[in-house]
Write a structure and sequence with these properties.
By secondary structure, this protein is α/β, with parallel strands linked by helices. It has helices at 18-25, 42-52, 59-64, 77-89, 104-117, 131-141, 159-165, 176-192, 305-316, 324-343, and strands at residues 7-12, 32-38, 55-56, 70-73, 93-97, 121-124, 148-156, 195-203, 208-210, 222-224, 230-237, 242-248, 258-263, 266-269, 281-283, 290-291, 347-348.
Length: 380
């Protein structure tokens, strides 16, 4: 029996989310191993490198390293395009957290570049591969609520507070649909397939905002908020299902997400797609709602699962599930929401994608005597 030789990867961007990725991708997955990290703040890169026993490199050094085959892009949205572009030009596979870029045309350029260079390009908030959404997919695929007719999605945040902590949320690419709604729209794409049109309304609740954190160097300064923070939309899917979507960044700081899927023979309540093991509830006609047992593993913080699954896909020469086509479709849909709101007319989607296959069920975290979770990532 041959041992597994991991593909080597480098993480670019050592901000808050990097801990979850580095923790998993230096120890948890057998097919992919992070060996280096990079950040514009050299001190921050060195701190993470020391913590996870990897190298701290300049990005150019990482691109020049022939042993590093994959770049994992965790930079703020404004840097996604250039970091991914340069990695592809260096012949590296790329996995990018959340959105592939900010500008829609830049997204198209990256799709073309990946094809031209013959490299893999994975993009997604990869929680869609974790237990909560995989169990929801199981329920739908087995017809347990019948045909899906509609979906209700609502999420909230307080961007006054979030913006003080993470200023990129107040810049292009950091708005509610881009930074947070992408979890929900990616989950819907994975569950329902492509959308065909969207009609939306959007607004900015408080364009002028004053920094209120007393520990911030910008305390007391007024900032201009230019990105829509309250968005309401209806999305029509090719399957015939309709989704009502509300993203509200002018509400409670504690999030109260809702994702409810209505079918002809039941109702599915999905929980929070940002949480790997968020509970899934199932309701049949004239019966009480019950919590559905998880059919899949990865129920804890599993960031990095998308990159690991892509590494297995490369190894097995099969499509990876966080495909660039699905990612671009969600990216276009977010732009479509805002274009529709700006123009006062429905936006017709141009892109489409093949809905990825579900992960095989039954690979649960059962300890030494159970099947390993990563085994679910091997085949398509």
């Amino acid at each position: 029996m041959s041992s597994i030789t991991p593909m080597k990867a480098g993480v670019v961007g050592c901000g808050a989310i990097s801990d979850a990725y580095l923790r998993n991708l230096t120890a948890r997955f057998r097919r992919l191993r992070v060996v280096a990290c990079s950040d514009l703040d050299r001190r921050r890169a060195e701190e993470q490198a020391g913590k996870y026993h990897i190298q701290a490199l300049d990005y150019e050094q990482m691109l020049d390293d022939s042993e590093i085959d994959m770049i994992i892009n965790l930079t703020p949205p404004g840097a996604h395009y250039s970091v991914t572009r340069d990695a592809m030009k260096s012949g590296k596979h790329v996995y990018s957290e959340k959105m592939m870029a900010v500008d829609l045309e830049d997204g198209r350029k990256l799709l073309r570049l990946a094809d031209e260079k013959g490299v893999r390009f994975g993009v997604a908030p990869d929680t869609f591969l974790c237990g909560g959404i995989q169990t929801s997919r199981y329920i739908l695929d087995h017809g347990l609520i019948g045909d899906v007719t509609s979906v209700d999605v609502s999420v909230n945040r307080n961007l006054n507070i979030y913006g003080d902590i993470m200023p990129f949320l107040e810049r292009p690419g950091g708005s509610m649909p881009f930074d947070y709604g992408c979890y929900h729209l990616t989950a819907l794409a994975y569950l329902l397939g492509p959308a065909v049109r969207v009609s939306a309304f959007a607004g900015i609740h408080e364009p002028q905002r004053v920094r209120m954190r007393v520990d911030s160097a910008l305390f007391g300064e007024t900032v201009e908020h230019t990105e829509a923070d309250v968005v309401a939309a209806v999305v029509e899917y090719a399957s015939g299902a309709l989704a009502t979507v509300q993203f509200n960044g002018a509400s409670n700081v504690d999030e109260h997400p809702n994702m409810t899927v209505y079918g002809t023979r039941g109702i599915l309540r999905m929980g929070d797609p940002n949480i790997a093991g968020s509970p899934v509830e199932w309701c049949k006609p004239l019966q009480r709602t019950v919590e559905f047992p998880f059919t899949h593993g990865f129920l804890d913080e599993s960031r990095g699962i998308g990159a690991a699954e892509m590494a297995w896909a490369i190894d097995r020469n099969r499509p990876h599930r966080a495909s660039k086509e699905m990612a671009f479709h969600v990216f276009e849909l977010v732009h479509g929401l805002l274009i529709s709101a700006r123009q006062g007319a429905p936006y017709l989607m141009e892109s489409t994608f093949e809905r990825p296959t579900a992960l095989p069920e039954g690979y649960l975290p059962n300890g030494a005597w159970g099947a390993t979770e990563e085994s679910a990532l091997i085949n398509g």
